[in-house]
Amino acid sequence: MNTEIIHVWNDMNDRLANFVNSKVKDPDLTKDIVQDVFLKAFTKFDTLKNKEKLVSWIYQITRNEIVSHFRKLKFDISTEDIESVEYSNDSLTSELAHCISPFINSLPEKYKQAIIMADIENVPQKEIAKRLNISYSGAKSRVQRGRELLKSSYNQCCAISTDIYGNVMDYTAKNRKLSCE
Questions:
Q1: Which residues contact 142 (CB under 8 A, 6 or more apart)?
Q2: Largest CA distance in the chain
Q3: Residue span of the structural domain in which 53 resides
Q4: Cα dist. 86→164, 165, 167 in Å?
Q5: Same structural domain for residues 121 and 54?
Q6: 3-state secondary structure of 169
């Protein structure tokens, strides 16, 4: 047994577990990944050319294991799960669609126009710039600022959870006195 790798492993085990947990957000999965990293590091130690880079090598193995986990997870989802998730996301998004309109209407006119063109009519921002007779960078800024104002408005009313693609996963009213109507 190589005592060098065991010594380094004992020193960095907690840091590695914290690193993994910050990425996967699951303590049990964290333990599994850290264990897999240890096994790979221990069995492949003889392939490491520069022993001074042991710590960075272990972190590279860790990053690869995390990526491998998410890849495997991506391919393990059944088609039934995908269909049910898409249906529920569509229904939640359509439920909220009627609530967004009052928030858009409450925006200052210049931001309201930009949001309607960009996000409802799907007009390219270069075309928005032409229609509003402003520069392209001005149109981009106006759309971005309008989105920020819109988000700020509805965040006062509702807590909306989205996935990484922006699909609505869940929502709840923050203040019962405020209404989407």
A1: 110, 111, 114, 128, 132, 134
A2: 73
A3: 3-76
A4: 14, 12, 9
A5: no
A6: strand
Report which DSSP code applies to 118: I
* Within-domain flag for 59: yes
Determine the Cα–Cα distance for residues 61 and 36; give it in Å rounded to an integer.
9
Q: Do 127 and 97 share a structural domain? A: yes
8 Å CB contact between 51 and 4: yes
Q: Which token pair is 20?
A: 């993994």
Q: Which residue's entry shows tokens 């200052």? A: 108
Provide the whole-model pTM.
Answer: 0.45
Question: In sequence order, which residues have a C-beta less than 8 Å from that of residue 145 and are 6 or more positions away?
Answer: 111
Do the domain assignments include residue 41?
yes
The DSSP 8-state label assigned to residue 167 in this structure reads: -
For 35-80, write each residue's pLDDT tens digit.
998 888 888 888 888 877 878 888 888 888 888 888 877 655 444 4
